[in-house]
Design a protein that fits this description.
Shape: elongated
Distance between the termini: 19 Å
Structural class: alpha/beta
Protein name: Transcriptional regulator
Order of helices and strands: EHHEEEHEHEHEHEEH
Number of domains: 2
GO biological process, one term: DNA-templated transcription
GO molecular function, one term: DNA-binding transcription factor activity
CATH class of the largest domain: Alpha Beta
InterPro entries: LysR-type_TF_proteobact-type, LysR_subst-bd
Family: Belongs to the LysR transcriptional regulatory family.
Helix content: 25-40%
CATH superfamily of the largest domain: Periplasmic binding protein-like II
CATH architecture of the largest domain: 3-Layer(aba) Sandwich
Number of strands: 9
Largest sheet: 5 strands, antiparallel
């Protein structure tokens, strides 16, 4: 199965631990990549996606929208103050990407004033950016559920908010595979809990 770096490290371990307790016979290979693995080419069997799947041959279950915003650690704000307006960000250390992906370029259009040149700390690893944010190195982007868990403070939410619809996807040929069905259900349950949507069960139809 495949997921993004942040989801794979910060969200899925708890779901997979529970799955292994219930199904110790299932072996799982977890591939972390911010590149979408092609399920039709069987680069992976199951994927956590932040975009709706386009291929008709895939089973897809929505698990809710995960909000992303701009955050900082309390220690950083205690030392540098809290920005009250977009222009105040010019006086802060911003954490962001070095080489933007297509998604980041599109998201930047809705996030005023955030460009590569404006980032004082740059990395193409989302995990590195998150670690810098937690360490109080600057202001950066984070998923709202993770920020709440870590006690991060939100910055300018009226200007910086992006909701990502999230899906669990699987090739339809695996619909009746017991192991894949169990993993699919565990991921739906775990991601819905993370996104705050626990309205229904997770097994594929």
């Amino acid at each position: 199965m495949t997921a993004s770096e942040v989801v794979g490290v910060e969200v899925l371990p708890a779901a997979l631990a529970g799955l292994r307790r219930r199904h110790p016979e299932i072996a799982i290979e977890l591939v972390l990549s911010n590149r979408a693995q092609d399920l039709l080419l069987r680069e992976a069997d199951i994927a956590v996606r932040m975009t709706p799947p386009q291929q008709a041959q895939l089973i897809a279950r929505p698990v809710g929208a995960i909000e992303i915003g701009l955050f900082a650690a309390p220690a950083y704000l205690a030392e540098h103050g809290e920005p009250a307006a977009i222009e105040d960000l010019d006086h802060h250390c911003l954490i962001g990407f070095d080489r933007p992906t297509a998604f980041q370029r599109e998201a930047a259009k809705r996030m005023p004033g955030l460009t590569r040149e404006g980032f004082g700390l740059r990395s193409d690893s989302d995990l590195v950016q998150l670690a810098l944010l937690r360490a109080g190195a600057g202001i950066g982007f984070c998923q709202l559920p993770l920020a709440r868990r870590d006690g991060l403070r939100r910055i300018l939410p009226e200007h910086y908010a992006l909701r990502l619809d999230t899906w669990i996807t699987m090739h339809e040929d695996l619909r009746h595979n017991p192991a894949c069905k169990a993993v699919f259900g565990a991921l739906v349950e775990g991601m819905r809990r993370h996104a705050g949507d626990v309205s229904s069960g997770g097994c594929p139809p």
